[in-house]
Write a structure and sequence with these properties.
The complex is a heterodimer. Chain A has helices at residues 44-48, 72-85, 106-118, 129-136, 177-192, 198-208, 239-263, 266-275, 289-297, 310-320, 322-325, and strands spanning 5-9, 13-18, 22-28, 31-34, 40-43, 58-61, 64-65, 68-69, 95-100, 123-128, 147-152, 157-163, 166-173, 194-195, 220-226, 232-237, 277-280, 301-303. By secondary structure, chain A is α+β, with helices and mostly antiparallel strands. Chain A has 2 domains: 5-131 and 310-328, Nucleotidyltransferase, domain 5, CATH 3.30.420; 140-304, 2-Layer Sandwich (Nucleotidyltransferase, domain 5), CATH 3.30.420.40. Chain B is built from 3 helices and no strands. The chains are: A alpha+beta, B mainly alpha.
């Protein structure tokens, strides 16, 4: 008998929750392929370690960008391999709930469900990431009060106001933590004349990146390839430089939160001042982001205890109470 | 005699099938389903799922994947 699954198919990481068991898989959404034969060489963490370090015949790719499938065939193969790893076979076809960005188009929606069905799911339904995050972050969404959740993912940033189990206001932008990495890469190339890979850019973000000045800031040594000489070179980056590099991306995230606040009904707006907003998603771990949003909105921002797992836990709860909560699936309400 | 038995059996199967089909087609009561949904979203109901949070492979510092989901 197949155990039903909830999948957070994120741009950066994929998490799988198995009914009755909890989170059984948490891996980067990366797949490594032999370019010549099309053979899959690695997935998940193993493939992530190959990014930017492969010989010409191997390509390590992220099949999702901005929360959307950019390569349908590769995504399907990645989902199939993930399902195999958690014990799904052609004889055990589980029901699957997949978390997707709320701004997903009809075509993208169909692409995700088709990929899951072809990969071995008996039935595939979608749920909006902010809704799943609110369930997983343990917000009182069963009450008639305004709950605001900000989900900063790898490719999307979504803000939703939820009350009585439904989305009241929603704002989403296709900007996420990968855009922060790309902004750092571009800055270092433009201002210091060295090329760095996306993994190095991410390491800089984690080490000294911030959205607002923070206490005990340090500089970081960055190693890359000099664009003029082609030789390895080391430069020193300051936290101010990184803040300047990522300012446009951070501003775009904050502006999206402000737009969502302005869409919320006034009766719920007053709840935010008391209860605050909840920040989830890996992008929300950027230092100073909560403080920056709080400063610009004048609304308290709290971090979830489970920022990376909130979305899959919420979808997992839907799988645990499938019959009662199937009205929350995308398309079910419209 | 056998023909009559078969006919009765067919009628019984058809009647049972129709009954099941009609029950499956019956629209759930709006108040009931809303109540069930809200109950399933209550903190008490969510507690077992959230308590079940045990990442299979906690990422180590040097091998952590990208931030963001």
């Amino acid at each position: 008998m197949a155990r039903d699954l909830a999948i957070d198919l994120g741009t950066a990481n994929t998490l799988v929750y198995m009914k009755g068991r909890g989170i059984v898989l948490n891996e980067p959404s990366v797949i490594a392929l032999n370019r010549q034969t099309g053979e899959v060489l690695a997935t998940g963490r193993e493939a992530w370690q190959m990014i930017g370090r492969t010989p010409g015949y191997i390509v390590a790719v992220r099949p999702l960008r901005g929360g959307a499938i950019t390569d349908f065939e590769i995504t399907e193969r990645m989902i199939r391999l993930l399902l195999q790893r958690v014990g799904v076979s052609r004889f055990t076809r589980p029901k699957v709930v997949i978390c997707v960005p709320s701004a997903i188009t009809e075509v993208e929606r169909r692409a995700v469900t088709d990929a899951a069905r072809r990969a071995g799911a008996a039935d595939a339904n979608l749920i909006e990431q902010p809704m799943a995050a609110a369930i997983g972050a343990d917000l009182p969404i069963d009450e008639p009060v305004g709950n605001m959740v900000i989900d900063i993912g790898g490719g999307t940033s979504e803000t939703a106001v939820i009350s009585l189990g439904g989305i009241v206001a929603l704002e989403a932008v296709r900007v996420g933590s990968f855009d922060i990495d790309a902004a750092i890469q571009n800055y270092v190339r433009r201002e210091h004349g060295i090329a760095i890979g996306e993994r190095t850019a991410e390491e800089i973000k984690v080490a000294i990146g911030s959205a607002d000045p923070t206490p005990d800031e340090n500089q970081a040594e960055v190693r890359g390839r000099d664009l003029m000489t082609g030789l390895p070179k080391t430069v020193v980056l300051t936290p101010e430089e990184v803040r300047f590099a990522i300012e446009d991306v951070v501003s775009s995230m904050v502006a999206s939160v402000i737009r969502c606040l302005s869409k919320a009904p006034p009766e719920l707006s007053q709840d935010f001042l008391v209860r605050g907003m909840y920040l989830v998603g890996g992008g929300g771990l950027l230092r100073g982001l909560a403080e920056r949003i709080e400063r610009e909105t004048q609304v308290p921002v709290r971090r979830s205890n489970v920022p990376l797992e909130a979305v899959v836990l919420g979808a997992g709860h839907v799988i645990e109470h499938y019959e009662a909560l199937k009205g929350m699936f995308m398309g079910a309400r419209r | 005699m056998a023909v009559v038995l078969i006919a009765v059996l067919i009628v019984a199967i058809l009647a049972g099938g129709t009954l099941l089909w009609a029950r499956s087609r019956r629209r759930p009561d709006g108040v009931d389903s809303f109540r069930r949904q809200i109950d399933a979203l209550s903190p008490d109901s969510r507690r077992p799922t959230i308590d079940r949070m045990k990442p299979a492979e906690p990422p180590s510092d040097d091998e952590d994947g990208a931030h963001g989901t």
